[in-house]
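Re: duplicated header lines in exported structure tokens

Our pipeline writes sequence and tokens for each protein into one text file. With two proteins the header for the second block appears twice in some exports. Here is an export where it did not happen, for reference. First protein block:
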Amino acid sequence: MWCYVTEDRAVADEVLSSVVAPMLGRDADELRGQLLMGPVDECLEKLEAYRQAGVQRVFIWPVKDPLKQLGVFMRRVVN
């Protein structure tokens, strides 16, 4: 799952609309509700919804700044 964890909604929306949506050929508004892009709380809610739907494993793919984003994901989302 593509991800970009940031508390700045404008930055998350920019990454989603300028990088991910064009790459996938999909609408950014549709993807916003599915991908881990945005504030920690929203990412946790999405992961919980996927867990409740039966998902047991999620592979993440940071869209930008991969090492920094992996660190943020581990510190803020996983813990």
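Second protein block, exported in the same file:
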Amino acid sequence: MKSTLLILLLLSSLVQAGIVIVTNKNSDINSLSKESIKYLYLAKVNKIDNIKIRPLLSENKELHKRFINTIIDKDISQYSSYWARLVFTGRKAIPRRLTMEQIKEKLNEKNTIIYIDKENLTADWKIIYER
């Protein structure tokens, strides 16, 4: 029984290992550090190396949760609380979460980034961070 549980946990972690941050293949962004991505998604900065970057959020709840846990290093309630404070104080608006179709459309814009499962990568996008 314990070995079955261990195998299931291992398989679960392997399935969840495929988060990548992508941008348009014509973007000026070639790579980003995990720290830079955190700052962008926490709205602490909007430029890296003088490039204005627009981070997008996925509507996929499981992917969003994995991204927040693994890249932002927060749990979903901490992240939600962080954004609630920004919105309440009037410093930022709530970011809108997008469907995959909306993401495909928005990634046509230069210097826009999003987290996706690696299996959803298309030839129009380039990976700028891989976990």
